[in-house]
Amino acid sequence: MVVFCLNExxxxxxxxxxxxxxxxxxxxxxxxxxxISQPDSGQVVSDSELFSDPGSNSLxxxxxxxxxxxxxxxxxxxxxxxxxxxxxxxxxxISYHPxxxxxxxxxxxxxxxxxxxxxxxSSLKIVRFRNTTANLMKRVGRGIVLTVESGEMTARLIKVWxxxxxxxxxxxxxxxxxxxxxxxxxxxxxxxxxxFTRIDxxxxxxxxxxxxxxxxxxxxxxxxxxxxxxxxxxxDSLNFSSIGLTADVSSKxxxxxxxxxxxxxxxxxxxxxxxxxxx
Length: 279
Fold this sequence. Notes:
The protein is 3% helix and 50% strand. The protein has helices at 47-50, 61-65; strands spanning 3-15, 18-31, 58-59, 69-71, 85-87, 101-106, 117-129, 132-149, 152-160, 169-172, 179-180, 184-186, 192-198, 210-213, 226-234, 237-249, 254-261, 271-278. Residues 1-38 and 51-55 have low confidence and may be disordered.
C-alpha cells in the first residue's frame, strides 16, 4: 500500500547567522510499495491512496513557479534563454537577499513598466534534447519593477527560491495557480514518454526531485497529470520505480516531480506512463 500526504511548512534559510529567505516546502510522507514487473499503471495505486489527507491535497502557485523546466527557444540575440534582460551581479555581497534592489540590463525590444512583476531565471546546464540544443532552467526569484530607463531598469526582490548571484535572465513573470487534487480520473489517452534527465542527478532519487520527460503539450500532457515511472534493469526487465506529478508543461517536454518512490533507481530513458488526470 502507498500512503502519502502533502503539508506545506515554512522554513528559514540562514547565511552568516542572518535569515535570508523563507521558503514553503511540501512535506510528503509515504510508505513504499513493492514494485511490479510490467508497465500496467492500473496496478500501482488507487485514488484513495494517492492522498491520505483530503484536507491537504493541494500545491501552491509558488511551488509550481520554482520547478525546473526545459527551454528550447532562442532570444533576439540567438541564445537559448528566456526573457529579455540580464541581472547585474551584486556589489559587496555574494548573493542577493529578499527586498534588495536589483539592477538589470535590458536586451533589444524589451518592454517593461513600473509595477511589472518579473521572474529571475537561472540556467542549470545546456543539454542536447531531440537532436537540438536546450537549456535546463529554474526560476530562482521574483521581483517588482521600480524604474525603467533607456537600456536599464531597477526592481525590488520580493521572492527568493534559490541562490541569486547575478547574470540570471529576467522575464515577465509567468502566472501559476494553486492546484487541488480532490478527484482523479483514468487518463483519456494512452501516453508513454521517456525520462530525459533527472535534475541534480543525485545518487538516489528523492521526493519532489524533478524529472524532465520527452513529451509535452503537443503530445497531450497536462499540468497535474500523474505518471508512473518504470526502471530498465536490463533490456528484458522493466520494474515499477516511482510516481510523479506533472508540474510544468511546454510543447515538447514536461517537468514531473516525484511524489512516491518505491525503488531508488531512476535513469535516463526509463519509461513514464500516463496514469491518471485531475477531474
